[in-house]
Amino acid sequence: MGNDRSGAVAVGPAALDPGEVVGVARDGREVVLTGEALAALGVGRERVDALARGTLPAYGVSTGFGALANLHIPAGRRADLQRSLIRSHAAGSGPEVEREVVRAMMLLRLRTLASGRTGVRPGTARALAGLLNARITPVVHEYGSLGCSGDLAPLAHVALALMGEGTVRDAAGTALPAGEALAAAGLDPVELAAKEGLALINGTDGMLGMLVLACHDLRRLLRTADLAAAMSVEAQLGTDRVFAADLLALRPHPGQAAAAANMRALLAGSPIVASHRGPGCTRVQDAYSLRCAPQVAGAARDTLDHAELVASRELAAAIDNPVVTEDGRVESNGNFHGAPVGYVLDFLAIAVADLASMSERRTDRMLDVSRSSGLPPFLADDPGVDSGHMIAQYTQAGIVSELKRLAAPASADSIPSSAMQEDHVSMGWSAARKLRRSLDGLGRVLAVEILTAARALDLRAPLTPAPATGRAVAALRERVPGPGPDRHLAPEIEAAVAAVADGGLLAAAEAVTGPLR
């Protein structure tokens, strides 16, 4: 995470902006509860207190949870009920979830609390905000959420830290007991009151946080995919005529129009493309992986647009069960089901796998002497003695194969739980976890394509690439040397991966084209 903590994010009943979520999750931005939030929290709490004083059974207030909802809990045991809920539900297992994911989840739960719909006390919401601002991150594990009744186990580990229990990491990343971290930050553990334990864990905030982060990252990777495709078109002596606006308008999908516009901008003024544009060129059509790049990247963009629409709706949602309604009722509901988020997480994983698959095919064409239009086999300096980028493509192919497996939908699965009370679940958390791995893989695949295309473009000398793609090659050359005898290739691949991840290559190209779409 970065150190910039400027510009606190105001958290209230209104929807959060995705950029605010990214800022808190990754850049350590602080949060502040608005006056409107504190007022809503007060009103919601009054409703829950009135319910707790009454005689009517209320789920999670005077009853047990899940399949135990028919068991009455006497008033004197209801604080124990909330503590027991958190301790028993903090049952995660496996590797730690990334800090940015946990912080996003904490922020999104705080936003729902700030709506006043959950009935927690203002002090409990302030405590969660204090945890974020102290940069204390509860240790959350990869396994434990079925994506229904909320991301129960992950959120329970956060609530456990609020109680001063469990393990957290401090601002420096050091693991320590939650009680010690709270004391060091001047924070008091929370004594949970009626319904508060349930309200802290009954939301889809983990999967939503990962969706918001994924959408942010995929936007950049889509522009990077257009850059990689443009470099490959030049490297393989392809044509830019198929990206003409009037041709793309015949099939009016907005995503493919944007991708084609990017490729036209990236290829503008290319001496390589101009060199074979005349009547002497006998190639009628490029391969699909070149010619159809905007169609595939465009479909991925349209898929991302839909995912961002779903995310925007979720960022305005108040998810809890039971929930405090506008007219003061406290009602059970099913809004905690993760299907809307799980579906788009899976949909994005399909698009990511397809983008990577097309990228790998373009790379392979540059290495195959029978298809590369005059480039040396495997772009090797001395073919036979040198292997060039032969095994870089193997690495790429291995990642693509993994991405195809990760594209299998998690949301198509369901395992009943809680003695069949919770008999259909979304698996949205699992969909989010695999999408994060998919996005990492896509970045690596694109990096290998760009690394290979840059080498091929250097080998086209004295012909030169377009100003924009040429600037990207120059930016890569600041990290990776140009063609020559075989070198240890793994560090060069990782340098290209870093240049994709930090946006350096994209920024170099956009310095010529202006912001790509």
UniProtKB/TrEMBL annotation:
Reactions performed catalytically: L-histidine = trans-urocanate + NH4(+)
GO MF annotation list: histidine ammonia-lyase activity
SUPFAM superfamilies with a match to the protein in the record: L-aspartase-like
Keyword Translocase: no
Pfam families with a match to the protein in the record: Lyase_aromatic (PF00221)
Keywords: Histidine metabolism, Lyase
One GO term (biological process): L-histidine catabolic process to glutamate and formamide
Keyword Lyase: yes
Localization annotation: Cytoplasm
Pathway named in the protein's UniProt entry: Amino-acid degradation; L-histidine degradation into L-glutamate; N-formimidoyl-L-glutamate from L-histidine: step 1/3
GO cellular component: cytoplasm
Gene3D superfamilies associated with the record: Fumarase/aspartase (Central domain), Fumarase/aspartase (N-terminal domain)
EC numbers, comma separated: 4.3.1.3
EC class (word): lyase
InterPro entries the UniProt entry points to: Aromatic_Lyase, Fumarase/histidase_N, HutH, L-Aspartase-like, Phe/His_NH3-lyase_AS
Family matches, as PANTHER family: HISTIDINE AMMONIA-LYASE
Family stated for the protein in its record: Belongs to the PAL/histidase family.
Protein name: Histidine ammonia-lyase
Species of origin: Allonocardiopsis opalescens
Native organism taxonomy: Bacteria, Bacillati, Actinomycetota, Actinomycetes, Streptosporangiales
